[in-house]
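Quick check before the chapter quiz. The format below is the same one you will see on the exam, so make sure you can read both the input and the output lines.
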Amino acid sequence: MLTMDLLRHGALEGGVKYRGHVNDPLTIEGRMQMDKAWKNLNGKIDLIISSPLSRCAEPALAWAGESGIECIIEPRVREMFYGDWEGKTIAQITHQYPGVLEQWRKNPEGMCPPGGESPEELRQRIRLWWAETCIKHDGLRLLLVAHSGSLRMFIAHILAAPIASTRTLDMPYACWSRVSHSNGENSLCFHNNKLTRGT
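Here is the expected output.
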């Protein structure tokens, strides 16, 4: 059986935005949020897989170095590319594209940010990466450090749920979840652990 813990990055400088591939740094609190989750996992993880974006990769590489395990930087788990929405706030996008973001936040199926990546493209790259990971790392316990969009889509894939389900899945900063794969079946073990129940 393969077990994978999922950790979203912590809070970022500059507040809430559709960052996508924009590399804003973690706040001090954001890094502390992630380190708190790692303390519950340190010594129990065989391999870390991280998005290449610095808000995920910097903590992941540091943890791997401290614990003497490998960290793989995996482009396929990076955040969705939001095209013209990159780095903009909700208010800015709403002003520039009236009504579009409202629909996107209800159900983004069949939509695509101008110049960006569609949810279907995101799901495809996540699906292919997971299929490869289940074969390559079977029997290991992994940690995936990634983003709200990519992790929501990953959990939707694990549950065989529609893309629209990603819009009702709570994914706060430093959200910690766990999935598993055994005998060809995917399972969601828990979602949004509050760090009070142990592992």
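If your answer matched, good. The mean pLDDT is 96.
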